[in-house]
Amino acid sequence: MNRYGARVREHWTRHAPNRLAELENPEQFFTDLGAEIQGQVSDLAAKLENNPAWMLEMGRSSAQTYLQDVARRTTARRIAEEVVMNQLAWISDPSLPLDQAREEWEQTRPSDENLVTWAERMQDAPDLMPSTVELEDKAKEWAVPVEFLEGLVEAEIPRQYLESNRALLAEAATIRFLREVR
Question: How far is 101 from 177, CA to CA, in rounded Å?
Answer without folding.
Answer: 9
